[in-house]
Amino acid sequence: ADTWTTGPPLPTTRSGGASVVYKGLIVVAGGECNQERTFVQTEGFDVTTGRWVTLAPMPTGKHGITAATDGEVVYIQGGSPICGLAYTDTLMTFRLP
Question: Lowest-pLDDT range, 3-12, 62-71, 86-95?
Answer without folding.
Answer: 86-95
